[in-house]
Design goal:
The chain is mainly β. It contains three helices and 52 strands.
């Protein structure tokens, strides 16, 4: 791979846990520093037990709830004696849905050991009970600022986050989030004159109210609400804290959900200036999963005919016929044999969320040369198809044996199964195959949405019969809300996983808890290239063995890359990734500041696993990746479905 120009430095956090032996003395000194006639309005005067740090040019903000209403005149911060910064900037931000928002006021002062006071030119009003953010910054080009909070295992109780910008000379007017932590409270506080008047009404539109469910199915939840007070231009909807859509209406349907699952759903209003209201939310659950009937009601057989009624005594021949005859929730029993190429077309009558389920008869082996799914609400289980395509809505393929697939479907679940042993010939007159790697891609004006690929083994995709082809195991050329989780990749020719965005947007894609074995041709295990911006991108808790990782799609460095086991860490490896990085563990290299907090390199040159050569990437009892994940951010279960409990291990498998 050609060397590239290194990106701007990512925040480095040197953590040194120090116990405040003279806590009472220092707290008393802090009280005296407030001055007469002023009251503490928000923050903490307590000297916290851990020393934290930020490189110059990177700001960090800490959430704090106002104790009293008043006008803030000054901010004070406790700087550790080891701090080398000569100048410190402090500022106060509004809260914007759990993040710092707009800068209310700021100031600078010469840094002093222990308490440093910064007077503010403007005196913003704070309201009791509201959340604000105290931010600090050592200007770019200076020395590192060290302060006190509750990082590094000290049981933080308040949110904190760094700026995405890493070369700031002043605090930004509007905050842009880098890394998020739970390291608060910061040893910092605001003082000023208290107010006896009522709290000032926020300039942002008020939150929607009377939020209520209007429709619940196994895969959808519809909400409605009363219009927000003020001049609301529209609404942003959130699922489990992540923005998933916008609407001008006072209703929204969350689709592609899992049956019998609880979700936190919320809505905020925004005005013409883009300011957002607080979120109004509720917790709702989809309808319970409906187990398939133990007894089939429709029947297929290679010897059947589509003139039949699809009964046990008069089976049909095609999947098309059984689907059209079938009612929501019915099970189609497929007799053993080869069915050639099959198609399931659209049927306008199939509007229920209960799927028509195709499954083999007990002990039967069912095979097809191809399967095309254009219809909606379909489940296919435990069959072999050389290739399948899917473009409908609400489709599940479970435990399939397949060489490859192409999909632009909505609400698609690819669960388990074996995909591979695929070495296609070149298409006639071409140097490329007619169908190459398994692909998620927009087609015919339709972008795939709400896709889950989980528990699949991808392996042995080869270009031996068409040498010019770029044979990867899985390609994503465009998708919205795609999760690739708990899969295993072995012996892929060029890349295990390539994410290009060649044909559409790449929004809210998560790659987590996968095993990526070494590629045959030496390409990257994962190549997420910069063709398309990737808002909401997350790559976490994967195990990458021997071949590298590219994560170049997030131009604003808002992508998140953490908890992974990787082949190497260094200034170059970390600096070229367009993402916020932390808590990654490597076989070799150096965990520099570019690699983020908590990053670590194995001392003996290899993270210990049960049997790398055999593709068993479970951790050994003494593996260097044990306990090196992020204790505040991790999936609830690992690649095997085992529940993750602290201490959290890096990589796909929890020991």
């Amino acid at each position: 791979m050609p060397e590239r120009t290194r990106s701007a430095s990512v925040r480095g956090r040197l953590r040194i846990l120090l116990i405040a032996a003279f806590l009472a003395l220092v707290v008393g000194a802090a009280a005296g520093a407030m001055g007469r006639g002023s009251a503490m309005l928000l923050g903490s005067r307590q000297v916290q037990p851990a020393t934290d740090s930020d490189r110059s040019g990177t700001a960090e903000a800490f959430a704090a709830r106002a104790r009293s209403s008043g006008k803030v005149e000054a901010l004070s911060v406790y700087l550790d004696r080891s701090s080398t910064a000569t100048t410190v900037l402090l500022g106060l931000y509004t809260d914007a849905n759990g993040h710092p928002g707009q800068l209310l006021a700021s100031g600078r002062a010469r840094a002093a050991a222990e308490w440093t006071r910064v007077s503010l030119a403007a005196h913003p009003t704070v309201s009791a009970g509201q959340t604000y953010w105290i931010a600090l910054l050592a200007p770019d080009g200076g020395d590192q600022v060290r302060f006190r909070d509750r990082c590094c295992g000290s049981n933080g109780t308040a949110a904190s986050e760094t700026s995405s910008q890493t070369s700031l000379a002043a605090l930004p007017a509007t905050w842009a989030t880098g890394s998020r932590y739970s390291d608060g409270p910061l040893s910092a506080y605001a003082v000023g004159a208290t107010l006896s008047v009522r709290a000032v009404r926020p300039s942002v539109v008020l939150a929607p109210n009377a939020l209520a469910e209007t429709l619940v199915t196994t895969t959808r939840i519809s909400l409605a609400w009363k219009p927000a007070s003020g001049k609301a231009r529209g609404y942003i909807v959130y699922r489990n804290g992540i923005a998933v859509g916008r609407t001008k209406r006072t209703r929204y349907t969350f689709a592609g959900l899992r049956c019998g699952t609880s979700y936190t759903l919320s809505v905020s209003a925004y005005d013409a200036a883009g300011k957002r209201s607080p979120q109004a939310g509720l917790t709702a659950s989809t309808s319970p999963c409906v187990p398939p009937s133990t007894g089939a009601t429709l029947f297929l057989s290679p010897s059947g005919t589509d003139n039949n009624s699809c009964s046990q005594s008069a089976p049909c021949r095609s999947f098309d016929r059984a689907y059209r005859v079938g009612q929501p929730g019915q099970v189609v029993q497929v007799a053993a044999g080869s069915y050639g190429s099959q198609s399931i077309p659209k049927d306008a009558r199939k509007t229920s969320d209960a799927n028509v389920v195709f499954q083999p008869a007990s002990g039967a082996v069912v095979s097809m040369s191809g399967l095309d799914i254009f219809g909606n609400h379909v489940t296919i289980k435990n069959m072999t198809a050389d290739i399948w395509t899917a473009s409908g809505t609400d489709i599940t393929l479970q435990n399939m044996q397949t060489q490859t697939f192409i999909t632009n479907a909505h609400e698609l679940n690819v669960l388990g199964g074996d995909y591979g042993n695929y070495a296609p010939p070149c298409a006639p007159g071409s140097t490329y195959p007619a169908v190459d790697n398994a692909t998620v891609s927009p087609a015919n004006g339709q972008t795939p949405t709400d896709i889950l690929i989980k528990g699949v083994t991808f392996h042995d995709y080869s270009s031996v019969n068409c040498p010019a082809s770029h044979m990867d195991c899985l390609q994503v050329a465009g998708a919205i809300r795609l999760t690739i989780s708990g899969n295993k990749f072995y012996r892929c020719r060029v890349q295990d996983l390539i994410l290009t965005g060649d044909f559409g947007v790449m929004d809210n894609i998560t790659v987590e808890q996968n095993w990526f074995g070494p590629t045959v041709g030496g390409g990257e295990s994962m190549d997420w290239n910069p063709t398309r911006e990737c808002p909401g991108a997350i790559v976490r808790y994967n195990t990458f063995v021997d071949t590298g990782v590219e994560f170049d799609c997030s131009r604003d460095r808002s992508g998140k890359y953490y908890g992974n086991i990787v082949p190497r860490l260094s200034d170059f490896d970390c600096g070229t990734k367009q993402a916020v990085q932390w808590d990654n563990v490597a076989d070799t290299g150096t965990a520099t500041a570019e690699c983020g907090r908590g990053s670590y390199v194995a001392r003996d040159g290899e993270v210990d696993m049960v049997n790398r050569a055999a593709g068993d990437y479970h951790l050994t009892a003494n593996s260097e990746a044990r306990g090196r994940g992020d204790r505040n951010n991790f999936p609830p279960t690992d690649i095997d479905g085992k529940r993750r409990t602290p201490p959290i291990d890096a990589g796909a498998a929890q020991r």
